[in-house]
Amino acid sequence: MGDRLADLATVADRLETEPWWKDAVFYQIYPRSFADSNGDGVGDLGGVRDKLGYLELLGIDAIWLSPVMRSPMADHGYDVSDPRAIDPLFGDLDVMDALIEEAHARDIKVTMDLVPNHTSDQHPWFVAALAAAPGSPERARYIFRDGTGPDGGEPPNNWPSIFGGPAWTRVRESDGSLGQWYLHIFTAEQPDLNWDNPEVFEDLTKTLRFWLDRGVDGFRIDVAHGMAKPAGLPDMNLELNALMRNDDDDPRFNNDAVHTIHRGIRKVMDEYEHSTTVGEIWVQDNEKFSEYIRPDELHLGFNFRLAEAAFDAVAIRDAVSNSLDAVSRVDGTPTWTLSNHDVVREVTRYGGGKRGTARARAMILLELALPGAVFVYNGAELGLPNADLPDSALQDPVWERSDHTERGRDGCRVPLPWEGSTPPFGFSTSADTWLPMPAEWASLTVEEQLEDVDSMLSLYRSAFELRALRPEFAGPGLDWYGSPPGCLAFRRRGGLICALNATDVPIPLPPGELLMSSAPVVDGQLPADAAAWLV
Fold it and tell me: What GO molecular function terms would the record report (predicted)?
């Protein structure tokens, strides 16, 4: 008993001295798909509020809400028409305020998406820009340019949209003639802001303070490596262009001036004690990545290496090593994620079926054993696979803009199954959910898994609890163990050992007392596609 109390005291001391976000478990809520409180088939903030008890039981530290700001929903909320209002689809400011208050009462922080790279084409600023003349102050808030070629009929440069098609759209001027072009790295309904214009940053500071003053604990910054554009907007090399991807030499992203923007954001955040930012940073080079999380920029930066790694010991070790190297250059905090609203769910990504599930169970133990902050996408704790949706159900703009060659991200955005044996599984009182729910998810509902000690949900709950309470998870670094081919093992400085068997046959466990495993250990042998914690 004395040793246990000493362990808890050690953990308490660590929590008091470190910012809360340094080792937090963030739970990403895709609001459309989490829980529907009003029966319209679309999840909302009332649904999130109703499920706070579940989130407390799960054991997470913070929620990250994907966009709930006012939006025409051309890209499901990432096209914001009013950044200081809640879209009626999700509720209103009163519901948001109540959600924040009740989450805090349960010791759950609330972070929300911020979309600074672009606005909706229905934002008042852009409406004014279309009505104004070329060279006007209204157009100077966005990136308008004259076209090239005869009569300006060609785009200003060769940039493609991340979602497919050109990144430029030509407008009709007030006299009805074809006129200038505007830049949109994403859909045409998402015009890019001109961050060289001080009005743009001034407006963002209003948005930051609006939500922070309401009690929001921080922001996930969408496209945090975007915003700044290179002088002259030069053409890009299209040889490596791909939908939903960019490389480190892509002039659309990762321009040096973006760091000035982040330093400005950090100054505002520092006015609010304990607030945090995490940036979506699709940058591979470790040195360039580290620049985003310097002490005067972002608190955290999403590193997607682990989500992109195959279930292979060499690939996973490389992802972990590079992630740790990137943050160590600036004494930063690593972040880890296996999935989100843009990524194929891990069960499917690792092979699907029983094997994909076994590997997903192993990988959550590996992820939680690593130092730093962890981000879990809603439904991962249920072991949900990607849903195989009919073409007629697809809504992602990628589907239309790619001329139906890319199915997009809808398969990982299907609503969560809560209870019952048939769709909509308690997600809504309406069977007409915004994306159809697979009937075969009956065995994956929260209700089915809560009392099953061997379920994915029980694995997550137990793992979260151990990670929060055990002192062996302390310390910023790790040391690699020798391990059989196709396997890996590391030791946290606090004493935790994590072993992963990515082979097809059982392997002996490293020495130590078994704390937890993703599959039953028999005679000291860790099964194939499994992971274990030892102390």
Answer: hydrolase activity
Q: C-alpha angle with apex 390: 385 to 396, nearest 5 degrees?
A: 80
Token representation of residue 279: 């940036």
- Residue among 25, 56, 30, 54 nearest 43 (CA): 30
| DSSP type of residue 150 | G
Rounded to whole angstroms, how far apart are CA atoms 448 and 380?
Answer: 15
Q: Collapse the DSSP code of 442 into the 3-class scheme (helix H, G, I; strand E, B; otherwise coil) and give the result.
A: helix
Residue 428 is predicted with a pLDDT of 98
pLDDT of 2 reads 52
Distances in Å between the alpha carbon of 510 and those of 363, 473, 504?
A: 18, 17, 18
Q: What is the DSSP string of 301-352?
A: EE--HHHHS-S-HHHHHHHHHHHHHHHHTTT---EEES--TTS--HHHHTTS
Residue 340 tokens read as 């989100």
Contacts of 417-420 with CB under 8 Å at 24 or more apart are: 417/382, 417/384, 417/441, 417/442, 417/444, 417/445, 417/446, 418/35, 418/445, 418/446, 418/447, 419/445, 419/446, 419/447, 420/445, 420/447
Q: What is the DSSP string of 239-253?
A: GG--TT---TT-TTS
**What is the C-alpha to C-alpha distance for residues 473 and 27, in angstroms, rounded to an integer?**
19
Residues with Cβ within 8 Å of residue 298, at least 6 apart in sequence: 221, 224, 262, 265, 266, 277, 278, 279, 281, 292
- Cα–Cα distance list, 390 to 438, 444, 476 (Å): 11, 21, 45
What are 64's strand-pairing partners?
Answer: 28, 111
Q: Which residue stretches of the chain have pLDDT < 70? A: 1-16, 242-245
What single string gives the DSSP state of each residue in 44-96? -HHHHHHTHHHHHHHT-SEEEEPP-EE---TTTTSS-SEEEEE-TTT--HHHH
Supply the DSSP string of 167-181, one letter for each residue: SEEEEE-TTS-EEEE
Cα 251 from Cα 236, distance rounded (Å) = 6
Contact 119, 151 (CB under 8 A): no
Q: Which amino acid is at 388?
A: D
Half-sphere exposure (CA, 13 Å, Cβ side) for 185?
27
Q: From 476, 486, 446, 469, select the one nearest 533 (Cα to Cα).
A: 469
What HEC string does 353-382 produce? HHHHHHHHHHHHHHHHHCCCEEEEECCHHH
Contacts 24+ apart (CB under 8 A), 195-201: 195/227, 195/228, 195/229, 195/257, 195/261, 196/257, 197/140, 197/141, 199/141, 200/141, 201/261, 201/264
C-alpha 178: how far from chain center: 39
Q: What is the pLDDT of residue 4?
A: 46
Rounded Cα distance, 479 and 20, in Å: 24
- Report, as residue numbers or ranges, the catalytic residues: 222, 280
* φ and ψ at residue 290, rounded to 5 degrees: -60, -30
With CA atoms as reference, report the closest residue to 112 among 353, 278, 336, 287: 278
Element (H, E) at 12: helix 2-17
First to last CA, the chain: 18
